[in-house]
Amino acid sequence: MNRLFAKVGIALTAALLGIGIILYQQNSLKESFGRIESTNQTFQKLHTDIVTLQHTVLQANYFLYFNTDRILQESKTITNELQSLEKKIRDNADYYPYTLHHLRKTQALFAKRVETIHDFLTLNASLKNSFVYLPTLARKAYTLFDITKPLDREIILLLSKINTSLFLAKNALDESFVEELHTYEKELAGYLRRIGEKRKARLLEASYRHLNVFVSYFPRFHKELNEILDKSMVHSLEKTFRLFSKESKKELDHINTIGNVFLLIYLGTILVVIYFIIHSEKENIRLKKMRDWLEKSLVTDPLTGLLNREAYHHRKNLLSKPALILLNIDRFKHINEFYGAAIGDAVLQECTKRLKTLLQTSQKASLYRLGGDDFGVLFEYENQDEIEALIGEIFDSCDNTSFEINGLVIDISMSAGASTAKERLLETADMALKAAKSSRRSRYLIFNPSMDVSETIARNIHAIQQLKTAIANDEIFPYFQPIVDLESGKTVKYEALARMRTASKEVLTPYHFLEAAKQAKLSGTITATILRQTLETARQSGAHFSVNISSGDIASSYDKKIICGLLHEYEEIADRITFEILESEEIEDYELVADFLNRVRHHGCKIAIDDFGSGYSNFEKLLQLDIDFLKIDGSLIKNIDHDTHAELIVRTIVEFAKGAGIETVAEFVHSEAVLRKVKSLGIGFGQGFFLGKPLPFSDCPECQIKDS
Amino acid sequence: MKYTLLFILLIGGALHLSADEPIQPIPKTIPYDHKKAELGRLLFMDPMLSSDGTVSCHSCHDFDHGGADPRPVSIGVHGKPGNVNAPTVFNSYFNFRQFWNGRAKDLKDQANGPLHNPVEMDMIPKEIETYISKNGYYNRLFREVFHSEPSYPKALEAIAEFEKALITPNCRFDRYMRGEIELSAMEKKGYRLFKTLGCITCHNGINVGGNSYQKFGLIFPYVWRAENPDRYAITHDPKDKNVYKVPTLRNIALTAPYFHDGSAKSLEESLRKMGHHNLGFELEEEEITALKAFLNALTGEKPAILREGGRKR
User: Fold this and answer.
1) Between chain A and chain B, how many beta carbons pairs sit less than 8 Å apart?
2) Chain B interface includes A170 (CB < 8 A)
3) How far apart are CA B74 and CA B84, in angstroms?
4) 3-class DSSP assignment, residue A102
5) Do B204 and A133 touch (CB under 8 A)?
6) What DSSP state is assigned to residue A91?
7) Is A87 exposed, middle or buried (0-12, 13-18, 19+ CB in 10 A)?
C-alpha cells in the first residue's frame, strides 16, 4: 500500500511538475512576448510622441497665443514613458545591457531637451512679446511723430524697416536678418539720444528695448528651436530600439532554449508517468494472469487441462435442458496398476486430446473430467438420437485406434452413461454408467428411472446405520446350521452364521447387512463377534464349529490380530474351529492367506474353502494352501439330481479333492433326491435345509450343551 | 505705403493665428484619496510640525487669503521673516514646478522645503516622525491610510494629497468658457486686452500661468537682489537673474500683495508694474479697469474639501 502511495505520489509529482513546467514555460513565453510586444509599442509611441512634441513646439513658435501646458504635458508624457520603458528594460537587465545603457543615454538627452524646451518657452514668450510690441509701438509712432519732419520721417522709416526685418527673421527663422536688426538697433540708439520730447523718447526707448530683447534672444532662441526640432532625439531612440530588437531576439532565443530544456524535462516526466503506467500495467497483467490461472485451476483439472466438477456444476446451471454423457475407461485401474500411474496419466491425456478434437466441431458441447477416469460431455439436449450419435462418435474415436504411449500400444474401451434429468444430472448419468458397466449387452445406457439406485443407496445407508447400532448393542450373534456326516448321518459340526437383531426384534440374515458391513469395513468386527460367541458356545458345548472368514478379514492386520487373540484366549478349544474362506472372493494375496492359515493351523484350526466351484477356482493355489475341506457351492448342488452338467463338475471336484486328500462338503442339500445324489457321488458331508436349518444353538437338535 | 499695407495684412494674419483657447478651465472635481487627504489636512494645519510649535503650512498658505500669505514676506519660527511672498497653495497641483524658481518638481518635493527651512518651520524628518508616531491619533490614521508605520515620506505624501484637492473650480471665466454663462462687456474686453497686450504669452494654460519661467523686468529691468528666490539662485547663470516661474493668476484678487517680494500692494499696482517692466509701456486707465474685471473673473469657489468640514479637530 505504501509502495502504491509512493508510486502514485511520484507519478502525480511528475505530472504536476510537467504541467507546472509547461504552464511556466507558456507563461514566461507569453510574458516575454507580451513584454517585448508592449515594449515595441512603447518605442513606437515614444517615436510618435517625440515627433508630436516637436510639432507642438513648432506651433508654439508660430501661434501668437498658445497654451504652454500642451508642451509640458507632452514632454511629461514622454519622460514618463521613457521612465517606464527604463524600468521594463531594467527588470530584465540581463538580456538588455546595451539597450539599457543606450536608453539611459536617450533619457539623459531628453532630460536636457526638456530643459531646453523650458528655456525655449521663456525665450519664445519674450520674443513674441517684442514681436507684437514693436509693430504696436510703430503704430503709435505714426500718430506721435510728424512725417513732414525729416528726423521724424527717418525714425518712422527705421521703425518700418525694423518691423519688416523682424517679421522676416521670426517667420523665416533666418539669422541673417538679425544682423540687419543689429544695425537698426544702433541707429535707433542714435536717434534715441537725439530725441528730446519725453513721450517720443519713451516710445523709442521701449522700441529700442524690445528690439534689444529680440536681437539678443533670437540667436539663442533659434539655436534652441533647431536643437528641439533636430533628429538627434529620434535617432537616439531609434538606435535604442535597434539594440532592443537585437537583444530581444537573444532573449527569445534564450527562452526558447530554456523552453526546449523544459520540454525535455516534461518529456522526462511523461516518461516517468509512462514508466509507471507500463509498470503497473505489467503488474496488472501479471496479476490478471495469476488470477486467471487461479480461477482456471479452480475449475480445471491440472492433469488434462479439462474443466473440473466445479466448472461442470456452474455450466450445467446455465443450460436450460442440459444433457450429460458420462464416459468411463474400462478397467482403467488395471492399466494404472499394470503400466504404472505415469502411463495411466498419459492415457487420460490422450483420451482428453481425442475427445477435444472430436468435440471441437460442435461448439455447444463442453468436456469435463469429473473423476479419476470419468469424463463428462455436457450440452444442450435436443433429441435422443443426437446423444446416441455422439456416444457412437466418441467410442469410435477412442476404441478403434490404439493409444501409442512411450512406444507402448494400449487399447482401451469405454463405457458411457447419459442422462437428461436436469435436477440430478450427474447422479443419474452415473447410475446409467454403472448400469451399462454391469450390463453384458450394451456399452452405454441412457438413464431411465428404473436405473435409479438411490433407493438402494438409501437402504444401504440405513443398513449401515442399523448394523452399527446392532454392533453397539451386541445384537450380532450366530445361528448354527448342522453339518452332517453323510455316511453316519450324524451331525459332526455346526456352521456359525451371522444374524442381526433389529430394533423391531426382527432377525436378519447376512444377505441384508453383509454388503453394508463390507462397505463400512465392519466385516472384521462381525467376524470377531461371531468367532467369540462361537468359541464360547464351543467351550460350553464341546461341539465342533466352522466360522466364515473373508479374505478381507485376513488382509486386515487389525482383524487378524483380534482373531488370533481370540484363538489364544480359547487355546484349549481352538482345535474345534474350522475357518471357511470364501472362494468366490478373489483372493488377491495368497501369501497373506497362507500366512494366516499357518497361524490358525498352529492353534489346531481346520481350513475350508467356501462356495467352491462358483467362480474361477485356482486349483494349484488351493493345493498350496493345504486346506482341509472344500464346500461345494450351492448353485452346483441344488439341481444336481437332474442337472448332468452340474453333476459332471461336482464329480471333477470330488475327484480332485480325493486326490489332494481334501474332505468335501455339499451345501444346499434341500431334498431327499439331492441328498441321495451327493451321497452317491462320494461327498463326505452335507449341509442344507433338508439336513437342518440355521437356529440358535439352544434350539438345535442333537445339541449338547455341556455343563461347565 | 506698400510696406505698411503688407505689414498690416501680415500682422492681422498673425493676430488671428490662434489655436484653441490658450486658457483651459479647471475641472470641477479631481480624483484624490479622501482619507489620505484628510490626514494631509491635519498635518497641513498642525503647527507642531515646526520646531517651536508656532508655524504650520497653513500659517503662510491662508485659506482665507486664496491660499497665500497676506504679508509681503512670510514669517517663520521665532518670528524670523523670510525673503519671499508665499505663492498660493490653491491649484498649485497644476503648476509645472513648485516654488518661485521651480526648484521642486512636485508638491511632495515642495512640502519638504518649508519643513526644513530654518527660517520657516525648521524641523528635521526624525523629529516629525517621532511626533506623528507618538501621537496616538496620527498613529492610528497613518495605519488606516497607509497600512504601515507613520513616516516622514508618508506625511509628505498625505500633505501633497490634501493640496491636490485644493482646487478652485467654477470661476466666472471657466463657466464662460464652458458656455454656462456670459461675461460682462468689461470682462470680455479685459480678456481681449489680456491677449492682445501679450499677457497671454506667459499667463496661459489651465492655471493662467505656472507653466514656464519668465524674466521679471524683461523690457525695463527690475531691481535684482542676491536673496531673490529666482532661477539664478539655482543655476548661477547671469541670464537667469530675476527669472521666475510665472505665477498663477487664478484667485489673484484674493492673494495680495503681489510679486515674489510682495512689492505690489494692489492689482492695479501689479498691472502697472508688469506693463512697464515686461511690456515696456504704460497701461491706460480703461485698460487697467478692463484687465481688473477679467482678473476678478478668475476667482473660483473655495476648494470643496475645505467646505466639507472634514474631521473634528
Assistant:
1) 99
2) no
3) 7
4) helix
5) no
6) H
7) exposed
Please state, in angstroms and rounded to a whole number, the distance separating the CA atoms of residues A50 and A107.
Answer: 12
Letter for the amino acid at A158? L
Are A129 and B10 a contacting pair at CB < 8 A? no
The pLDDT, as a whole number, for residue A680 is 92
With contact defined as beta carbons under 8 Å apart, do A165 and A180 qualify?
yes
- Which of B17, B93, B197, B211 best tests the A interface by mutation, with the highest count of A CBs <10 A? B211
Half-sphere exposure of B16 toward its Cβ, with a 13 Å CA cutoff?
A: 5
Binary contact (A128, B201; C-beta < 8 A): yes
Give the chain A residue whose CA is nearest to the CA of B277.
A206
Nearest CA in chain B to A202: B281
Question: What are the residues whose beta carbons fall under 8 Å from the beta carbon of A685, sequence distance 6 or more?
Answer: A483, A484, A485, A486, A492, A493, A629, A663, A664, A665, A666
Distance to chain B for A68, nearest Cα, Å:
6
Q: Dmax of chain A from CA atoms?
A: 217
- Cβ–Cβ of A167/B10 closer than 8 Å? yes
Q: Which helix (H) or strand (E) holds A164?
A: helix A150-172
Chain B residues with CB inside 8 Å of A132's CB? Answer: 196, 198
Q: Cβ of A135 under 8 Å from any chain B Cβ?
A: yes
CB contact under 8 A, B22 and A66: yes
| Whole-number Å distance between alpha carbons of A239 and B44 | 47
Each residue's pLDDT tens digit, A426-471? 888 888 888 888 877 778 888 887 777 677 777 778 878 888 888 8
Taking residue A351's Cβ as centre, other Cβ atoms within 10 Å add up to 24
Inspect the interface and report whether the beta carbons of B24 and A67 lie closer than 8 Å.
Answer: yes
Q: Which three cell numbers stand for residue B94?
A: 497644476
| Catalytic residue from among B38, B120, B161, B163 | B120
For A594-649, the pLDDT digits (tens) are 888 888 888 899 999 888 887 666 777 777 778 899 899 888 899 998 988 889 98
SS3 string, A208-221, reads HHHHHHHHHHHHHH
Quick check: is B268 catalytic? no
Q: Hey, which residues 275-294 in chain B have their CB within 8 Å of chain A?
A: 278-281
Q: Do A163 and B201 touch (CB under 8 A)?
A: no
What is the C-alpha separation between A463 and A461, in angstroms, rounded? 5
Which candidate in A63, A68, A208, A223 is best for mutational testing of the B interface (most B CBs within 10 A)? A68
Cell triple for A234: 529620434
Q: From CA B61, how far away is CA B59, in angstroms rounded?
A: 6
Q: Quote the CA–CA distance of A406 and A423 in Å, as a whole number.
A: 42
Report cis status (omega within 30 of 0) of the bond before B257: yes
pLDDT tens-digit series, residues A48-98: 999 999 999 999 988 888 899 999 999 999 999 999 999 989 988 888 999
Q: How many CB atoms neighbour CB A680 within 10 A? A: 9
pLDDT (tens digit, 9 = 90+) per residue, B230-275?
999 999 999 999 999 999 999 999 998 999 999 999 999 999 999 9
Q: Does residue A482 carry a pLDDT above 90?
A: yes
Gap from B242 CA to chain A (nearest CA, Å): 12
- Name the one residue in this structure whose C-alpha cell is 473634528: B312
Taking the Cβ of residue A217 and every Cβ of chain B, the question of whether any pair is shorter than 8 Å is answered with: no
- Predicted TM-score of the model (pTM): 0.58
Asked whether A373 and A329 are in contact (CB, 8 A), the reply is yes
Tell me the nearest-neighbour CA distance from A17 into chain B, angstroms: 37
For residue A596 the three cell numbers come to: 494366516
Mean pLDDT of chain A: 86
Q: Do A122 and B243 touch (CB under 8 A)?
A: yes
State the cell numbers at B9.
Answer: 495684412
Residue B236 phi, psi (nearest 5): 55, 30
Q: Are A203 and A144 in contact (CB under 8 A)?
A: yes
Expressed in angstroms, the distance from the first to the final Cα of chain B is 73
